[in-house]
Amino acid sequence: AMRVVESGGGSAQAGGSLRLSCTASGFTYDSFDIGWYRQVPGNECEWVSSISSGGDTYYSDSVKGRFTVSQDGGKNTVYLQMNSLNSEETAVYYCAIDYSLPRSPLRYCGGGRKSGYWGQGTQVTVSS
Question: pLDDT tens digits for 43-69?
């Protein structure tokens, strides 16, 4: 069965760093996107970054230059290195995989969609 699992969330001081990991297993896509989204309760789901199976990377303007997405294809794992964090980035971070992922806000983060798979999310808390 398809499974997406995030890890690496936790706490950091403002200006600090965290690295999130996303491991996907059980999928048979030949071509796919893996993306990171985040959501604060009561707010929409914000797209953060994506990487294609071909290695193309994409970032939202709010994280460009501070976050880096990378993949370890041999392990089907994608990483999100987050530097210079600020307190407004406190959120639950989600990983998703699909043939193509939107690079725009969504009404909610998580599964239950027509396509694609989402992890359960990992909490990131940045204190000022």
Answer: 999 999 999 999 999 999 999 999 999
Query: Helices (H), strands (E): how many in the chain?
Result: 0, 11
CA-based nearest residue to 122, from 7, 14, 25, 2: 7
Query: Which candidate, 32, 29, 9, 14, places its Cα nearest to that of 94?
Result: 9
Q: What is the CA radius of gyration of the chain?
A: 14
What is the rounded CA–CA span in Å between residue 127 and residue 67? 18
Instruction: Kindly report, residue by residue over 89-105, the tens digit of the pLDDT.
Output: 999 999 999 999 999 99
Quickly tell me which residue has 């983060």 as its tokens: 109
Using DSSP's 3-state secondary structure scheme, residue 79 falls into strand
- Burial pattern 2-22, b for ≥16 Cβ within 10 A else e, equals eebebebbeebeeeeebebbb
Residue (of 74, 22, 30) closest to 53 by Cα position: 30
